[in-house]
Structures
1.
Amino acid sequence: MTTHNKYTAAAVAVLLLLIYLSFYSVRETEFALVTQFGRPVRTVADAGLHVKWPFQSILWFDKRLRIYNPRPSEFLTRDKKNLVIENYVAWRIGDPDRFVQSVGDASAAEMRLHDIIWSGLSAALGMENLDSLVSASADKVQATGMLDLLTASADRVALSQYGIRVADVRIKRLNLPEQNKQSVFARMRAERERIAMQYRAEGEEQALTIRANADREKEEILSAAYKDAEKTRGQGDAEATRIYGQAYSKNPQFYRLLRTLESYKKVLDDKTTIILNSDSELLKVLTRGEAGAK
Amino acid sequence: MSTLVASQFETAERSEVVLEFPSSRPRQLRLWAWLLGAWILSGIYIVSPEQQALVTMFGAVTASRVLPGIHYALPWPIDNVYKLKVHQLRRVAIGGDVADNVLGRLQPVSSEFLSGDQNLLNIRVVAQYSVSEPRDFLFQTENVDRVVGSVVGAELSRRIAHTAVDDILTTGKIAIQNEVLRAAQQTMDSYRTGATISSISLESVTPPPEAADAFRSVAGARADAIRIVNQAEGYANDLLPRARGEAAQLLEQAQAYKEGKVNRAAGDAARFGEVVLEYAKAPKVTSTRAYVEAMEQILPKLKKLIVDSSGNVDLTVIRRDDNSGTNQTGTSRK
């Protein structure tokens, strides 16, 4: 039994080993590169269980999209302005065969990408004016077309040379070189001071307008009231005059008498000295007696 | 000694015999069966309420969205279960703030953005996202946090570079957040990140410390302007009601004058009307009576000189009489 059993065990072990060597699984995130004595035979991109010859071996490559952030670097625009630009590159391995031969690993790939993108970006920015990148006017949209072109050409070069697909190149941050910043800060301060003065002056303007407006309105109100008031008084006078006229015209002579006597009461006071003729209407009776009353 | 060795051999011999013993077979099988059972049962897994799961078989996805509950997958190494907290909000901050410089990091987190009118601003933005497509989220990108950070950073930088600094600091914030969210989501979808950004918020937007005092003085000036305008409005608010009151007073006075005048006229007219009726009955007597009555009222107050109808009067007498203080002497002289 013992020798027989040992043979069986060995056979089972060999079988298991063969199965182990003949099957391999590929995850969703990977490419598998099947190599035969070091020579790449084929690339498998489909996830799942696959078969190979036991003597073939496998290299796995991550095929997920990755983000590479190169260090910020300074570029010159067409109008000779310096800009510090920080960009990111979204890339993935596209051709594992070429990738393993020319690059090998991710950090080496990033170095290659850095060179491609840097030269592409500096050439592209050299054809753009600063205000196509930085501008407060709404109609100037950032030159995204430039970045799309850059992405396409970088993708072409990287794929054919390094087996790398460049999915996207974007500008992550725009900044000014350190040596320019002090002057920018000075400009910002000056601008703020101007704006502060403008705010104050505009406030004054508004306040003066409001005050003058109020003064004018006051004058309008008072003069309109004066107008209406005088009109009303006039109406009163007219009405009174009409009433008097109507009443007194019934007997003007008697009115004249009464009114004159009325006015005497006001006109003549204790400071007045009056010289009366003894022959006057009032004193006639005094001087002539009964006959004076005729 | 030899017996001892012999006994050892014996036990060895015996143990081999035990292994060969047919009754041990079922026990061994039972052990294997237990192990097999345990292995099969190890495929049971639970997805908790906040999770979703994804199952792969030899690396290939077989179920991309397994909802909460108890489930079964083939045990290792065949199936593999990934559980994800899909509703959990994940947070990415872009840009540091001033504190980063103070903390003395070797490479301070760059938070300076260049605005459209070439001002520098320190901005810190926080993006929140959640998993929308577990399969893409797990397998399409290497590091979703990093993708979100980069994409949001790029879109933010683009918007900031096309907006004037005053808009960024005041009214434009909401618009920027919305636009960045929309554009960043679009880019992320094109990368198939399987993530949905739920919010972008500009947590702090501050001018650089080098120019901060100037920005503050603008805020002060704005407050001053508002104060001045308010004072002017206070002046107007004080002035106009007074003027209206004064106007009302004028009108009322005029109305009063009119009413008074008319009423008095009516009164006078009525009085005259009454009197004239009586006058008509005896005109001569009435006018004489009126004259005399009036004289009675008037004359007592006056200084009087009564002269003869023919004679002239020496007017110097008036002055002397004035000096003497009596008019009685004057009258007596006649």
Note: The radius of gyration of chain B is 58 Å.
2.
Amino acid sequence: MSSGLGGLRLAGTQTLQLARRSLNNERRQLISIMPGLVFPLMMAAVYSQQFGRALALPGFPEVDSFLSFILPGSIIQAVSFGGTTAGTELALDIENGFFDRLLASPVARVPILLGRLGGTAVVAAGKASFIVAVFMILAWPLKAALREHSSSLLPPHCWF
Amino acid sequence: MTTVIEAQGLERSFGDLKAVAGVDLAVEEGEVFGFLGPNGAGKSTAVRMFTTLLRPTGGMARVAGFDVVSKAAEVRKNIGVALQDAAIDPLMTGNELVRLQAVLHGIARPEAKKRGGELLERVGLTAAADRRVGTYSGGMRRRLDLALSLVHEPHVLFLDEPTTGLDPTSRLALWEEVRRLNQEQGTTVFLTTQYLEEADELAGRIAIIDEGRLVREGTPAELKASVGAPTLRIDIDPEHVDKAQSVLSRFGIDRPARNGRVAVGLDGGVAKVAEVVQSLESAGVQVLHLELDAPSLDDVFAEATGRRLEGATQHHE
């Protein structure tokens, strides 16, 4: 019935295939990851305009620009959005009975969970990279400007 | 003969509700066993216990020789399951699903690919294999579901209401496939249904479940014979129902019937029909329409529970 795959290797393959499935599903409804990308970027844009000058306040963390201050927050926000999607997907699986199919098959319980999380993790990594890339692009003209005005009286981090 | 599915005093409660209230049954290898009952009778709850998805709250069950609680993993290796409403992810394609299912059953990828192709061909889904399941019709989903439950060539197949909501053609195709599986591969099939016709067509043995308890068990022929007399159904003016019933009670046991109709288990069969009509007319009840039916499973059910099955005359959910 079952072929000669070893137990651990089999669990690995199963996890991988389940992760692939959850990744495929994310790809097939790409629109669902948009809120998780758009909101953190929008927030970052708004806050860096509003609070950019807070960098000049005494005791503010040592950062190059407000963008690098807000970057981790944006990434966390994007990933939490992804977590919500993953939770909804899992709930849908349970509701439409797909989860029962998994539970009634001889697959171990751990791959079922890891597979689901695996897909989400890949998407989260993708989102984080995208946000970092956008921030780097935004910061580009800023860095150039800082170099030009290096003779200015103001300390450089006050420029943004 | 080995017993493949076995239950003793099997129980499941949800709070105060006893969904399954002490079921004993034994299904032998190679049988098609029909589990017949109305909605909410406990059919699905029983199947979920047999397929390890739900823990019994009392009694015990064994499938393929393994206890469903302590040897759940072993049970899962030996069973194929197609649950109610075809549990299928609409975003995946037929091909992807059947391959994933094979991997879940520990079949290596190249073989999974081959087996998947064969199974999809068998259920006539080759052309739709690369389409998302969300675009499939109800019949296609059920056929895919059946294919999925067969990837690992299980000894025991559980089908929970496999044709509910299907059109007559798809239903016949599915019956044919189940029959083929049973005859060619010797697969033991445990089938729940709310359709008498389906149980009659497919099952070699039937158990009727009502409110969590088995009320009858036997071959369709045995069950029908146990009811005995054929049913005489007479359409009359609804006002005359009481009068008609008192006349009919002289000819046999009253049977449930819809409004505007009376029914009786006619002792003596066809020879008595003329006499019934005469007696009704002399009592002032006009006969509008009349039919005499050999005992059906519907009668068995009615006799056992005092009610008619939903969908006994028409196939609606």
Note: Chain A has a mean pLDDT of 80.
